[in-house]
């Protein structure tokens, strides 16, 4: 079972991919979001789904610390719904991603990655943490 993890933001989408056994997550790519063209973003993700024979897509759901869903969470829910419509053959899951970006930032700082390089990989690293959390849960 191969799974794809997504950290959907307003400017980029961090993408992680599991191994074929569904045990580990590795960073794959950071997609630049199309300004006002969600269909182009969905197409890019769908291409990765087909290319890597993905069965499950895990999308990070940003919740507030009190568990409520804000505007970013609503955007991710909408993205997940649209992805299901475009790819009805795959399972799309939402996964609580609270503090994953903070954790990714701390990991990169402790690895002494420069601020400039961190900015380029932070979303991909957050996607890895989202996907690995889901894989560990399963």
UniProtKB/TrEMBL annotation:
Signal peptide extent: none
Domain YqgF/RNase H-like: 1-104
Keyword Hydrolase: yes
GO molecular function, one term: hydrolase activity, acting on ester bonds
CDD domains: YqgF
Localization of this protein: Cytoplasm
Entry annotated with the keyword rRNA processing: no
GO CC annotation terms, alphabetical: cytosol
A Pfam family annotated for this UniProt entry: RuvX
Matches recorded under NCBIfam families: RNAse_H_YqgF
Biological role: Could be a nuclease involved in processing of the 5'-end of pre-16S rRNA.
HAMAP family: Nuclease_YqgF
Family (UniProt): Belongs to the YqgF HJR family.
Alphabetical list of PANTHER family matching this protein: POLYNUCLEOTIDYL TRANSFERASE, RIBONUCLEASE H-LIKE SUPERFAMILY PROTEIN (PTHR33317)
Protein name per its UniProtKB record: Putative pre-16S rRNA nuclease
């Amino acid at each position: 079972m191969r799974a794809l993890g997504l950290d959907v933001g307003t400017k980029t989408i961090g993408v992680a991919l599991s191994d074929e056994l569904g045990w580990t997550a590795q960073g794959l790519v950071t997609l630049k979001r199309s300004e006002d063209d969600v269909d182009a973003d969905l197409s890019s993700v769908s291409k990765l789904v087909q290319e890597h024979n993905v069965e499950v897509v895990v999308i990070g759901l940003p919740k507030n610390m009190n568990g409520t869903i804000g505007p970013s969470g609503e955007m991710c829910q909408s993205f997940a719904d649209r992805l299901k419509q475009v790819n009805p053959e795959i399972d799309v899951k939402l996964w609580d991603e609270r503090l994953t970006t903070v954790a990714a930032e701390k990991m990169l700082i402790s690895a002494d990655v420069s601020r400039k390089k961190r900015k380029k990989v932070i979303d991909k690293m957050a996607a890895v943490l989202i996907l690995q959390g889901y894989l560990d849960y399963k």
